[in-house]
Amino acid sequence: MGRLRSAPPRYWLVAVAVLFFIGLPTVISSFLASEWTLALVFAIAIMGLNILVGYSGQLSLGHGAFVALGAYTSAILAHRYHMDYLVTIPIAGLLTGIVGFAFGFPALRLSALYLALATFSLAVVAPSLIKRPKDLTGGVQGILISQPDPPDFARNGFATITGNAMTSEQWIYYVTLVCALILFWLAWNLVRNRPGRAMRAIRDGEVAAAASGVNIAGYKTLAFGISAFYAGVAGSLYGLAIGFVSPDAFPVSLSIQLLVGAVIGGLASIPGPLLGAIFAYFLPIESNQWVPSQTWIPDQITSTVKNAGPAVSYGVVLILVMIFARNGLVGLVMSGYGVLRRRLRGAGDRETGQMPPDPQTA
Amino acid sequence: MGRIGPRLAAVAAFVFAVAACGGSSGQTAQSDVGVTSNSILLGNTNALSGAAAAYGTISNAENAYFTYVNNNQGGVNGRKITLKVLDDGYNPANTVPLTHQLVEQDQVFAMFSGLGTQTQTSVQGYLNGKKVPQLFVATGATTWGKDYSSNNWTLSWQPPYQGESHIYAADVMKNHSSAKIGVLYQNDDYGQDYLKGLTDGLGSSASSLIVDKESYDTTATSVGAQLTKIKASGADTLFLFTTPGFTIKALVTVTVLHWEPTIYLNSVSNPQVYMGIAAKSGAALKNVTSVGYIKDPTDPQWANDDGMKLYKTVIANCATCNVNDGFNIYGVAVAYTMVDVLKQAGQVMTRKNVMDIAASNLNENNPFLLPGVKVKTTSTDHFPIMQEQVITWSGTGWTLQGSLINERGTIK
């Protein structure tokens, strides 16, 4: 009981967030649940990108390609070899992780800017590459994935609570949620322990880290591998949630969308990717549909947003975030919380000489 | 208690349904979701942004025609039509959730004129599974009409790409039988469909006539490398199976390369305004051949035509639409067919009835199409438009050549 009472407030926030996501499908429609599934899929992919960019300091503009690899691995295994789709999720993650690990080696030789270009090229060629082995990937036609029916225990449990039988969309939502919880928990453990400290040390000063005995090459490639693993799992779930994989579903803009989500949420934080994903997923959809429905917004603005939807809204939000919240949404919340706490405790604490918490590692 | 919930609900629903049936007996009026006594809601996804954004205007033109019908005719049988348009950016990964939204959340009666081959393929299974009409998809992929038996909630409208390619093949055989053909095509269902039609149309001489085939992906930014390669292969005839943005780039690049091949341009990129943009950007546009089935708004011969006058009245309802853009008259023409189908459905506004009329019982003279072109379906033929005419570029506009060519029955 004492431990419960002394638990820092963020633990309570985690509990509330988990309960929120578990309860969500019972109050929203099956269609909205499928939207939130995609937001969670984005959260997983962005968490992976966050480990790479936020913690280890390597930039990737090509995570869409890893997502595509994961999606196609699962789709091909399920479609051609008739494997259970759920079994293919970890396989897709591991395979993508291995490919990412291998990609980490050439990445070692590239400085930030060139690494960004190299990963960008990966994203550019991915759709064309997928189209070539036609027999394997279905070429331009893609692969249709039949969405699994929920098993009996889930169907009955859900019916007991809500009175309606569980749909496959809702079942996929819970599968995604479980994956997301496990992967977020793993990431949280990773960054608080030795590898996380090593990655941050490399990010903040490679020479200093090397001098302290950190295996630079090892941890940099490891970060790439783990990051790709997350992207692979996300890709696998993406295919499942959409029910269709095709080459043009993984354009360059997907990679950009993921990076934008990571930045908006807040780099090098655990809740950041979740908030970033919700933004990155819902922002283009809502801005496309909400802005034209508002009569008070001038026609010129409405038609611009309508025709260039995601780009315009991303641009505006990114600029605002860069001006007002340099460390993303999480940084904004943390600094707001810090200000609030100092106010409540009075000015006394200000002079204690305590170091302010580093928002980068919140 | 919880377990009784659904059963109770089912019983209640049954009682309600019986009561509803009892209440409406004596009338023949029936309707499905998305239809009320004074409204019909249709859904649409289109590329308002992205590589194929030139097509976005089609949805606006369709809306302009529905507005015209709502204001001037009081809608269809007293029901006003609303078309909800969502932007999928030509990306199937967006089309899927947006279509789910239109069907499940907005409760549309039918999907209408969804644009793009890959995008519409991505939702075909879903819509057919839910028995929601996927009407008059804005793509000419041959599969829509050909595979109707396995997907009988999906129907196309415009002539199939393979039929169009057959016309080009016949034209090559007749006028340039020793041509060396180079093909630039978009690497997706749409481009490959055109290519297949061309190969089939040329028959046994295809392998000797076609000297080079190059493709590009929709994510590409330039087609320069492909065209340089085609030119180097010695080709003297160029086929462009490309969407408007890439077509303009290709036409300009051909001139930049100091190359003067005979060009065959697919109809999905041939509106006069896009040719004008290409010319302004420096394209020479010599020896360009295409096909048409819709009246070209810039062609002076239609100046006093009733259909063209009606089009100009209709398109005035759309502030952002360029009256000269051939895609707008396309949108108005397909919306005309949709209204025609809804009129014929009368008071039986069920998805099944509307689908039956569209897929098997159409016989329409559309005022926006070339004289003689019929929009026709029967129980054995599910390709609504099958007549096209060869056109050549005169420097300022398209000139009709010869007479209408009927492709009905040639696609197996």
Q: Describe the oligomeric state of these chains in a short phrase.
A: heterodimer
SSE string of chain A, helices as H and strands as E: HHHHHHHEHHHHHEHHHH
Head-to-tail CA distance between termini of chain B: 58 Å
C-alpha Rg of chain B (nearest Å): 23 Å
Strand content of chain B: 15-25%
DSSP summary, beta strand count of chain A: 2
Helix fraction bin of chain B: 40-55%
Percent of residues in helices of chain A comes to over 70%
Q: How many β-strand stretches of chain B? A: 18
Which blocks of ≥5 consecutive residues of chain A have pLDDT under 50? none
Beta-strand content bin of chain A: under 5%
Number of distinct helices of chain A: 16
Shape of chain A: globular
Sheet/helix structural class of chain B? alpha/beta
Largest interface: A-B, 44 and 37 residues
Please, how many helices of chain B?
14
* Large-scale geometry of chain B: globular
Strand order of the largest sheet of chain A: 1-2
* N-to-C span of chain A: 26 Å
What number is the mean pLDDT of chain B? 90
